[in-house]
Fold:
Amino acid sequence: MTFKAQLFAIAGMMGLFLGLVRGQPVLSLLSLSSLLWLLSEWILFSWHVRFQFPKAKLHRLVNGELDANRSLWAERVIEVRVQLANELLLHGCTLDVEDVIPENLELIAFSPNTPTPDVLIGTNVETQKSKGRGPESSSWLVRGVQRFMNYRDDCPANEVRLGLGSQPTEWGYTARVRAAGNVVFPGFRVMIQSTHQLFRMERFVKVEQSFRALPTFVDAGEYRSLTKKSNVIPRHGIHRLLRSGMGSELLELKEYAVGDPFKSIAWKVSAKRDQWMTRQYESEVPARVQLIVDGSSTSRVGGFGFRLLDQMTFVAASVARMATNAGDPVGGVLMDERGIRRIPPMSGEKGFQLLLRSLGDFSVNPCPPPSPYQPRMLDAAWALLNQRYPELLDLKVNHFPFSIFPLTPGARTRRRQRFLVAGALAEIDALSVREHAALIHDETAFARRLQDLLNNSGIPWIAPIILLSDRRDREPIERMANLGKCILSAVGHARDNEVIVVMSDLLNCVGILEFVLPAVKLAIAKHHRVSFVCPTSTFLRPSRGIAVDFSRENSAEELLLIAEQARLRIQAEQLQRELHWCGASLSLSGEKNAIHLIMSELDAVKSGQGRLQGNLR
Amino acid sequence: MSDRSGETSRSPLTGSLNSNASQRRTIRSVGAGLQLLAIALCMEMLLGISTGLGLPLRLFLLSLIAFCIVMRLGWLALVALQVCLIAIEPRQVELSPYPVGFFYVLVASAVIVAAMKAPETHRFVTDYVVSLFSSDAKELEPNRKFRFAVMRLSYYALQLMLTIVVAGFLLNRLPIGLQAESWLEWSRQNGQAVWPGALLIVLLIAVLVLVRENAWRQILPSQASLYLRSVQLIANYRDLFGFERHRLRRLKKAQFLGVAKTPPPVQRPKLRRSSRNDDTIKKGLK
Structure:
């Protein structure tokens, strides 16, 4: 029963009382008939809830597939279609269906191929704006008039309203995957309400579909210089592989055979010998690449698509794609607080897919580091529970002890929310009554449960799930020590002349690089090449060109960016100095320059060139 | 602004509203005015039944009800009509409503329902009128829409009539007003309990049982579990609160004394630096 219905019932009862007391028959009749009409509406609503609502069977097709064991790609658009499989007889009630979209998806628009639903009456299927959502620019009076005049606002594309005579219908929308990881469609938030909005019931229909989101990659284009800079003789111990292949050095001339590429025909020699001759080139020695990805908690802070880890997986996937195309095997070492996972080097499409799947699984956020309780956590959990567990916040079933204190309305509301959320959490996690009581009084335990709830629901590591101050490293020494172990592990598993790519947030750890540098020196001593890719929080390279333009008025965001870039530049110079001393190369920010740097290192390994000491991109 | 029905779609080149959308908007504006006018006439007719209501009060009530319709406040419309009735209706000993009273209540109830459903009614009328004159293939189903509209209107009319008839029957049958005396006499003469008190109590209990049973059957297993859990929590809340307070105090004390276990710190390795100084490194960088 909504507040509107309660007011209606109170008005009816008061009118009936006054009518009987004062002896006014029409007033009594009007009030009593209003009450009976309300009763008939309730009976009709109950019938819908009891017999029609359970018939609603909803299915979701993602890119035309019902099967959830498929993969999606980050930063690509997917098409989602929702089908209502059963015929519902909604007479005097409407059914609002919202396909709850995970945080890793960005809603774009309606699906272009969505047919017009079977509209039997004007209000049969219509988009609607949820209460309390979206920007509310106009006053309540203007909104009321607009609603009366039916000026519809922009509405989320994943919501529809079904009314009288709704047939099995279908609607859809498009969305973009923000980042690698997983995309879990939890289900549908369904609200059935009488057309007069007197009675309402909300449920969450769980139709869970989980997809793995693979990291995106790009072809970084040509990274080699167009002019040959120097003739480099391979170092001692480096030998060319004398086998025909797709290299650049000439191996031999042979007679033309059907299928040989025309561009390899040696025209002069063919003319001299009066016979078609083709050139054969040397095979390039396959060089292995080992990608070390540091997925520590600092790299996971931020919205999906804006994490440092997303930059790393982008670079890793792009490097893997280009190396695989060149026939080079690619392996990886994935490191975070949970431990170290090694992916064996593999070449070919199968190896590339394995690496992508591993990176996708690795991008899923684990349990966040514990944070102290803050009221915004409760707000976020309240909103989430309202969306996904509305039935558990019902005051009819979620009781809590009465107390006079606190007296202020705001504090009383907070207390009520906390008790309701604690009850819902206890039910979701199947806690005992004592643990339930502990949730109410122990802020640490409550914050931990809230964090788990938000994290398991796919909320990214942003405030309030994690404090913004937690962006700084909590255990930098431990992280650097683990990174050193990873490099040693990669060196231990490496053969001759490999490229070890370390992707980690090192800018804040310049002072404690001594945990990493011995491992780097060992790798270089074993004729490997070590490249560091250090993503930046601004997604930009901290170049010297960015400065304050005093000739015009700078916005606060611009000044903040300039200040952040200046800070990063100082740290980058220190980091570069340390790595240069060891002979490792460094690229800042996860962009094409980083991919070019790694591919250049790979080419250098193949050609047996001397190391590009301290290369900076 | 995109809309699935193409209602407010704009031309991609000029940005102007499509003809269908502008036509719909025009009809909507005119229709809204006509709807308000029709309801105002109904209300004027309702208020005009009584002659004792002054013009200012009548205007105030009219504007209040128009406001209720626009803002979709059916309960406020009911209150306004009740206030009007309290002011204009003469007191009577007999509570049986006369036929004019029935008509009044029917129109008043229709106005209240219309106030609750004004946007939907308005939208339907607009869509129907537009579909009559539209050349769009999607909207060539006016007969079908009209059939559903008639069905819906018949349903609302039937529901209202039924509730008013039942209410009138109850007011006639229940021992209120003059009938109370006759029922009392009948009960005294036959040595029975005061009718229909006993029957009403039984009916009330039966209705309550039905309502509660219906409510219980509607809840989900998780809700039932939560209900039992919360009832148990409330029953033992004082004890649990005491346990928890004690545990937290002990924990705080342990943290204060430093008894809580902390992981050992990681040892820093001793790194042998190169003999080159920083100037050489800077030179190398250049």
User: Anything to note?
Assistant: The first helix of chain B runs from residue 19 to 48. The two ends of chain B are 56 Å apart (CA to CA). Chain B touches chain A through 110 residues (CB under 8 Å). Chain B has a mean pLDDT of 71.
